[in-house]
Amino acid sequence: MPILTSPFAAHDLIRQPEMANQPLQAFDAADQYLLEHLHAQGLAPVSRVLLLNDSFGALACALTGHCQLTSSGDSFLGHLALSKNLLRNGLAADSLRFVPASQPVSGPFDWVVLRIPKTLALLEEQLIRLHGQLAPGARVVAGAMLKHLPRAAGELLERYVGPVQASLAVKKARLLFATPQPRPQPHSPYPTYYSLEQPAIRLANHANVFCREGLDIGTRALLPHLPARTGALRVADLGCGNGVLGIVFALHNPEAQLTLVDESYMAVQSAEENWQAVHGARPVSIRAGDGLAEQPAASLDLVLCNPPFHQQQVVGDFLAWRMFQQARAALVAGGELWVVGNRHLAYHIKLKRLFSEVHQLAATAKFVILRAIR
């Protein structure tokens, strides 16, 4: 297992979800560059430091005990990795405060140390929320690998914080230093909204929700083919995003018991608001989680899923495979998993390894709708 070695300490770190023969590590050269910069600046134990988007807790583990830490991010899996990595390295779980990205942070902070996220809307919302949270003389530094550092990230730092200077590149990583200057109170453009025609509902989407500006084409392909089953079914919308699949299914089945789960705190926040707008006080379980990992075995009759094909900047079907395995464990005998996926991902082959029957129900030029029976 790769060890993160920094001027602060050496730490053994893991990613989440854990995979056999994990080819990826839980940190990169941008994390190391940030830690070297902080150490060179003489970070004081009394310094109040806000970490943003610390993917798997690498920065937090290194800085624990060296300052007063608050960490904020939008990934449940990232939060889980942070908790496991603290324990793995003998660090106290209460040595820092974690704030989901769906909630505002509370300063003042002397340092803001951030990793540039894949979704620049998330970065914009986080920078907007820094207004009024910086101590006098506060310093803001962002880090990213060059291949994941768009020009727009520096422009957002300039707009919401102050003038930006870029470091030299080291090991294909770069830092951006923003000097805070007075700015008028910014207005957040988030959440954004879009409406469906059939059914006629309006959906809120917080900053880090996938396809925030309109219904994604995979979900659009699946919606007309949702199972027309009624009765007191126990149904999960796995990887729910803004909750549209579960919400629409519930419209057609008033007796169904719905569970909506996503690993994004902002997705869960969006799904909660959308469920309330459409269904009012109708009972539902909406939670941030590692898919159906916490779902009791044989406790669901139906799972609806439009699985992700990436984790941050890493593209692959490992998350989808994990979700299929979780769905199989959570379904009763004869229970069904309904999936939409890109044709080229060949999900039907993977599903046949887990389920007794797999049927293609519909297809477009790009997507297939599959029904897998437990």
UniProtKB/TrEMBL annotation:
<comment type="similarity">
    <text>Belongs to the methyltransferase superfamily. RlmG family.</text>
</comment>
<dbReference type="InterPro" id="IPR002052">
    <property type="entry name" value="DNA_methylase_N6_adenine_CS"/>
</dbReference>
<dbReference type="InterPro" id="IPR058679">
    <property type="entry name" value="RlmG_N"/>
</dbReference>
<feature type="domain" description="Methyltransferase small">
    <location>
        <begin position="201"/>
        <end position="371"/>
    </location>
</feature>
<dbReference type="Pfam" id="PF05175">
    <property type="entry name" value="MTS"/>
</dbReference>
<protein>
    <recommendedName>
        <fullName>Ribosomal RNA large subunit methyltransferase G</fullName>
        <ecNumber>2.1.1.174</ecNumber>
    </recommendedName>
</protein>
<dbReference type="GO" id="GO:0008168">
    <property type="term" value="F:methyltransferase activity"/>
</dbReference>
<keyword id="KW-0698">rRNA processing</keyword>
<keyword id="KW-0808">Transferase</keyword>
<keyword id="KW-0949">S-adenosyl-L-methionine</keyword>
<dbReference type="Pfam" id="PF26049">
    <property type="entry name" value="RLMG_N"/>
</dbReference>
<dbReference type="InterPro" id="IPR046977">
    <property type="entry name" value="RsmC/RlmG"/>
</dbReference>
<dbReference type="InterPro" id="IPR029063">
    <property type="entry name" value="SAM-dependent_MTases_sf"/>
</dbReference>
<feature type="domain" description="RlmG N-terminal">
    <location>
        <begin position="2"/>
        <end position="181"/>
    </location>
</feature>
<keyword id="KW-0963">Cytoplasm</keyword>
<dbReference type="GO" id="GO:0032259">
    <property type="term" value="P:methylation"/>
</dbReference>
<comment type="function">
    <text>Specifically methylates the guanine in position 1835 (m2G1835) of 23S rRNA.</text>
</comment>
<keyword id="KW-0489">Methyltransferase</keyword>
<dbReference type="InterPro" id="IPR017237">
    <property type="entry name" value="RLMG"/>
</dbReference>
<dbReference type="InterPro" id="IPR007848">
    <property type="entry name" value="Small_mtfrase_dom"/>
</dbReference>
